[in-house]
Specification:
The complex is a heterodimer of chains A (about 280) and B (about 270).
Chain A lengths: L1 H8 L3 E10 L5 E11 L4 E6 L5 H8 L7 E6 L2 E2 L7 E4 L11 H5 L14 H17 L15 H13 L5 E5 L7 H18 L2 E5 L3 H7 L2 E6 L4 E7 L14 H18 L5 H9 L1
Parallel strand pairs in A: 3-8, 3-9, 6-7, 7-8
Antiparallel strand pairs in A: 1-2, 1-4, 4-5, 9-10
Chain B lengths: L18 H25 L10 H14 L2 H32 L1 H15 L7 H8 L3 H25 L3 H8 L5 H30 L1 H4 L8 H10 L3 H29 L8
Helix pairs in contact in B: 2-11, 3-4, 3-6, 3-8, 3-10, 4-6, 5-6, 6-8, 7-8, 8-11, 10-11
The chains are: A alpha/beta (about 280), B mainly alpha (about 270).
C-alpha cells in the first residue's frame, strides 16, 4: 500500500518543544523543550541522573501522563491517551496474578480493540502467536504456571510477551530489568535484542544502567535534571548483531565512561574527595 | 572435628516453627483459659452466680436445646446477621468500587462516610424504631448501620490497592475504562474483597446483641439479655460462647472459600 510507505517516512514518534510541569505546592519543571524523533524499527534508550524526567517522558509517550506544552505524535497521530499502538513494560507488579502465564500473554485478546472483525483465521493466528511468544521467551514449560510461581526474570519475560502479543507499533520499556540480578539481566539483554531484530519493533527503553543503554540502544539519549531536558544524544556505532563480549571492547568502555561522566556532570553531584579524606582521617 | 550447627531459638524474631510445635502452643492457648475457668469456678472463691462452672454452662446449653428452642434462636440470629451484612455488602461493593476508582466520587462520598462511621450504631436505635418499626427490619437495619460505612471504606481501599502497573499495562494494551474495571480492578481486588467480607461479617455479629435489644422475642442476643434479667449467668455464658463458635465456623468457611476461589494465591513456588 502506498499510504503506509508515506507514513513510514514520518518518524514513529515525533516530539517537538515538549514540556511538562507538575503543579503542586511548588511547581516542578519535569521536562522542558524536548525535541526527539524516533524512527521506525529504531531502538532508543533514555538515561540520565535521577529526576531528569526520563520516566516521565516515556509515560508521556505512552499516554499515561500529560504534557503541558509542545507537541507529541506517535504514528502520525497526536498522543492524548494510552492506546494499543504503544504497549508498555513496567519494572514490576504489572502481571495479573490470577491469570496463568499463557492467559497473561493473551490478555490483550480479551479487549474490544482486538475483537473487532475477527475471523476464525485471525483467532488461529493469534493463538499461534501466543504460543510462538511463549517459546521465544523460553517459557513453554511454564505455560500453566501463575506469576507468583515465577522468578523475577521469568515474570519480566511474560510481561514482554504480553506487550508484544498485539504487535504494537511502539514498545515502551520503563526500567524493565531494574529489579533483576546482573546475570539474569544479561540474559534478558540478548533476549530483547533478539526480539527487536525478529519483530522489527520500535523500542524506547528507560534505564539507569549506562552499560545496558549502550548495549541495547542504537541511540542513547542522555537527559539532564532540573529542569528535565535532553542534554546529549549519542549514536551507538555497533550493528544489530551484538554479543556480550562487546561490553569489554575499548570502544564500548570509552563510550560508557564518556556517558557516565556526562551524567555525573549534569547531576550536579560531584564527589567531594577533600571531604571524604577529612572524614576517613578522623 | 565437630560441626557447629546453629539452631534458631524458638524466640528469635520471626523465627521458624514446626507445624507440630505450632499446634502445641495453640492447644495451650485454647485450653488454659478453660482450665482456669474450671478451676476458679470450682474453687468456691467466686459465687456461682458470678461465674458458673463449665459443667453447668454445658447443662444449661443442653436444656436450652431441648426445652427452649436453641436452634430457633440460632437460626433467627444467623438470619438477622446475614441479612444485615448481606444488604450492606450489596450496596457497599459498588459504592466502594466507585470511590476507589474515581477521584470525584471519592471526594464526594469518602469524607461523608468517614464522618458517619464514627457515629455509634447503638444511638441509631430510637431512630430506626421510628423509621423502620420494631419488626425484623429494625434488627437488620441496626446491623446494616453497624457494618455498612466501615465496609464502604474498606472496599474502596481494596480497590485502591490494585497496583497502578496492572491498570496501566491494560491501558497501554488498549483497554477502555470499563474494560480496566471489569478485567483488572475487579479480579485483582477480589481476594482482598473476600477478606473484607470476612472481617465485616465478624463485626456484624458484634452488633447482634444490640440489634436484639429492639423489641425482639427470639435470637441468641435476646436470650442473653433475658438471662440477665433472671440472673441466669450460665445461660449468658452459653449464649456468648455460642456466638463465638458460630463466628469461628463462619470465619473458617470464608477462609476455605478464599482457598477454593483463589488457588493461585495459595500456591507455593
Amino acid at each position: 500500500m502506498d499510504a503506509s510507505k508515506v507514513v513510514s517516512m514520518v518518524p514513529r514518534i515525533r516530539i517537538r518543544g515538549l514540556g511538562k510541569i507538575f503543579e503542586g505546592t511548588q511547581q516542578v519543571v519535569a521536562l522542558q523543550n524536548v525535541d526527539l524523533d524516533v524512527q521506525e524499527n529504531e531502538f532508543v534508550t533514555l538515561v540520565g541522573a535521577s529526576g531528569c524526567g526520563k520516566s516521565t517522558l516515556l509515560r508521556i509517550i505512552g499516554g499515561l501522563e500529560y504534557h503541558t506544552s509542545g507537541e507529541i505524535h506517535a504514528g502520525g497521530r497526536p498522543v492524548t491517551a494510552p492506546g494499543a499502538d504503544r504497549a508498555m513494560v513496567f519494572q514490576h507488579y504489572s502481571l495479573y496474578p490470577w491469570l496463568n502465564v499463557i492467559d497473561n500473554i493473551r490478555f490483550s485478546r480479551r479487549l474490544r480493540v482486538n475483537r473487532e472483525d475477527l475471523t476464525s483465521a485471525d483467532v488461529e493466528r493469534a493463538s499461534g502467536r501466543a504460543d510462538a511468544l511463549l517459546n521465544l521467551m523460553g517459557l513453554s514449560s511454564m505455560s500453566g504456571a501463575y506469576p507468583n510461581q515465577l522468578s523475577g526474570g521469568m515474570q519480566q519475560r511474560v510481561a514482554i510477551a504480553r506487550a508484544l502479543m498485539p504487535k504494537p507499533e511502539i514498545l515502551l520499556m520503563d526500567e524493565p530489568f531494574g529489579a533483576l540480578d546482573a546475570q539474569t539481566r544479561e540474559v534478558m539483554h540478548d533476549l530483547i535484542l533478539h526480539v527487536f531484530n525478529l519483530e522489527k519493533a520500535t523500542i524506547v527503553f528507560v534505564t539507569h544502567d549506562v552499560e545496558e543503554a549502550i548495549y541495547l540502544g542504537q541511540r542513547v539519549v542522555l537527559l539532564a535534571p532540573r529542569p528535565g531536558r535532553i542534554d546529549t544524544i549519542y549514536k551507538v556505532p555497533f550493528g544489530t548483531d551484538r554479543q556480550q563480549d562487546l561490553k569489554h571492547t575499548r570502544e564500548f568502555l570509552d563510550m560508557k565512561r564518556e556517558i557516565l561522566e556526562r551524567i555525573r556532570e549534569t547531576s550536579g553531584m560531584k564527589t567531594d574527595t577533600h571531604l571524604l579524606d577529612k572524614m576517613s582521617a578522623t | 572435628m565437630t560441626t557447629v550447627t546453629a539452631r534458631p531459638s524458638l524466640w528469635s524474631i520471626r523465627g521458624p516453627m514446626t507445624q507440630r510445635r505450632y499446634w502445641m502452643f495453640a492447644a495451650v492457648g485454647l485450653l488454659t483459659p478453660i482450665l482456669l475457668w474450671w478451676g476458679i469456678a470450682n474453687s468456691g472463691w467466686v459465687e456461682k452466680v458470678f461465674m458458673p462452672a463449665p459443667g453447668s454452662v454445658w447443662a444449661r446449653t443442653l436444656l436450652w436445646l431441648e426445652e427452649d428452642n436453641l436452634l430457633g434462636d440460632m437460626a433467627i440470629s444467623i438470619y438477622r446477621v446475614t441479612a444485615g451484612w448481606g444488604l450492606s455488602a450489596v450496596i457497599a461493593m459498588p459504592i466502594g468500587l466507585l470511590i476507589g476508582t474515581f477521584r470525584p466520587v471519592q471526594a464526594l462520598l469518602e469524607p461523608l462516610t468517614d464522618f458517619i462511621r464514627y457515629m455509634p450504631a447503638v444511638a441509631f436505635i430510637p431512630l430506626v424504631m421510628l423509621w423502620v418499626g420494631i419488626d425484623e427490619g429494625s434488627k437488620i437495619a441496626i446491623i446494616f448501620i453497624g457494618t455498612f460505612f466501615q465496609m464502604v471504606l474498606m472496599v474502596a481501599e481494596d480497590v485502591r490497592r490494585v497496583p497502578s502497573a496492572q491498570i496501566e499495562a491494560a491501558q497501554t494494551l488498549g483497554a477502555t475504562r470499563s474494560e480496566v474495571i471489569q478485567l483488572v480492578l475487579l479480579p485483582s481486588a477480589k481476594p482482598a474483597l473476600l477478606d473484607t467480607m470476612r472481617v465485616t461479617m465478624g463485626w456484624a455479629w458484634t452488633y447482634l446483641v444490640v440489634a436484639e435489644l429492639v423489641a425482639a422475642n427470639s435470637g441468641l442476643g435476646y436470650a442473653i439479655l433475658k438471662a440477665q434479667r433472671f440472673l441466669q449467668t450460665d445461660k449468658i455464658f452459653a449464649g456468648i460462647i455460642l456466638i463465638g463458635l458460630i463466628g469461628l465456623v463462619i470465619d473458617q468457611l470464608f477462609r476455605l472459600a478464599h482457598r477454593k476461589a483463589f488457588p493461585w494465591m495459595h500456591l507455593k513456588s
